[in-house]
Specification:
With 129 residues, this protein is α+β, with helices and mostly antiparallel strands. The chain is built from 4 helices and 5 strands; from the N terminus they run H-E-E-H-E-H-E-E-H. Bound molecules: zinc ion.
Length: 129
């Protein structure tokens, strides 16, 4: 992974709206168009209405006109590495392939690299997908 993806994820984390959990998370996607799309978690006073950093980055990618995640970095300020939650794994898999690399980072850099298939093995698939 080139350093710019990590820096993008770390930079995105600064935009987190996390007044309740105080747990900022950042995510950055390199898409098939070569561009980097970022996101942060956005909490809400009505807790279930908040969402994670990964879908924010996916939304940015889709609205930027890209459809395929080539690689992705996720970072949380307060964890040594931040694996995407279960729901996010499904969301990421919609736009990733089994071999897509997901980098789990702390503030200093990549701590663990996993593939989509390692993060979400035996994932939901249909003839439609
Ligand atoms: Zn999540």
């Amino acid at each position: 992974m080139s350093h710019d993806l990590f820096e993008a994820a770390r930079g995105a984390m600064a935009f987190a709206h996390a007044p309740y959990s105080k747990f900022p998370v950042g995510a950055a996607i390199r898409a098939e168009d070569g561009k980097v799309y970022t996101g942060a978690n956005i909490e809400n006073l009505s807790f279930p209405q908040g969402w994670c950093a990964e879908p924010t980055a996916i939304s940015a990618m889709i609205m930027g006109g890209a459809k395929k995640i080539v690689e992705m970095a996720v970072i949380a300020e307060k964890l040594p590495l931040c694996p995407p939650c279960g729901g996010c794994r499904q969301k990421i898999s919609e736009f990733a392939s089994k071999g897509t690399k997901i980098y789990l980072c702390d503030e200093t850099g990549v701590k663990k690299t996993m593939t989509m298939d390692e993060l979400l093995p035996f994932s939901f698939e249909t003839e439609l997908g």
